[in-house]
UniProtKB/TrEMBL annotation:
Organism lineage: Bacteria, Pseudomonadati, Pseudomonadota, Gammaproteobacteria, Enterobacterales
Pfam family, one: YafT
PROSITE patterns: PROKAR_LIPOPROTEIN
Domain of life: Bacteria
Protein name (database record): Aminopeptidase
InterPro entries, A to Z: YafT (IPR058961)
Source species: Atlantibacter subterraneus
Length: 260
């Protein structure tokens, strides 16, 4: 057998042995488009802890795992670093938050509405009919996918924030304020407002993360001026905007102080 024939046989054997390779990212993207469509059944959903932290909230964690995590390097996001900013449940973060972040970082935004349809088709089952496709079950954790997007864009970190606006009414009997999520209801001067935020910072390269909540501000709703139409609604909107502005400014400064 001459050398040319030997090389040919080796190539054929290699192709036969490797005819079912692991799907590439491009193959997965093509399969996902064919299976799911683009923008199909999109709805405003909040990100869950599983979306952000993956399986870490449900896995059995040993003492060794905890000690190993303590030895990892601290997260660092130098000033002017390119980052991705995400607001949970929103197509894009609020403008006032983008403005605060842009004072310290180069900001790109991403949708905070997760896509729950994750099944893609990308290979054949060799034990069945060769024309029958098999849906490949992929570990499509939302944060893992976003880290890939950030890596392609050469972003340093991902910042996700989950926010809740609440109204509270003081109860004289218990001498406590009872809080509930604000649903655009009419407010009186006996009601307070507060804006709760949880901030999660994720390093694109390592997947390491840190999360915290800044100290929240509480504002008393201002009483409306008499004999002026829609003043109460306008006053409430202004208070909410100011409350968010103060909260965002505080949390971004906190981020910079902790991780620059």
């Amino acid at each position: 057998m001459n050398s040319r024939s030997a090389v040919f046989l080796c190539v054929v054997a290699f192709l036969l042995a490797g005819c079912a390779p692991r799907c590439s990212i491009d193959a997965k993207k093509t399969g996902a488009r064919a299976e799911n469509g683009v923008g199909k059944n999109a709805s405003a959903q909040q990100l869950t802890d599983r979306d952000i932290f993956g399986n870490e909230t449900t896995l059995a964690v040993s003492e060794e795992d905890i000690q190993a995590a303590l030895e990892e390097d601290e997260l660092r996001v130098p000033l002017n670093s390119p980052v991705i900013l995400v607001q949970s449940g929103s197509r894009a973060p609020e403008a006032i938050m983008q403005q605060e972040m842009s004072r310290y970082y180069t900001v790109a935004t991403f949708s905070g509405i997760p896509d729950r349809q994750k099944t893609v088709t990308c290979n054949k089952d060799k034990n069945k009919d060769e024309n029958q496709d098999v849906a490949a079950a992929e570990n499509m954790n939302w944060m893992q996918a976003l880290r890939y997007v950030a890596a392609k864009g050469h972003q340093k970190a991902i910042v996700v924030y989950q926010d809740t606006l609440q109204s509270g009414k003081y109860e004289a009997a218990t001498k406590n304020t009872v809080w509930s999520d604000y649903k655009n209801e009419k407010l009186t001067d006996s009601v307070s407002l507060r804006y709760l935020v949880r901030f999660t910072l994720v390093d694109v390269a390592t997947g390491e993360w840190a999360t915290w909540s800044p100290v929240n501000y509480e504002d008393k709703v201002l009483p409306p001026l008499p004999a002026k139409k829609n003043v109460a609604e306008t006053t409430t909107e202004q208070q909410i905007s100011q409350l968010k502005q103060r909260t965002y400014a505080s949390m971004v400064k906190d981020l910079v102080n902790r991780y620059q």
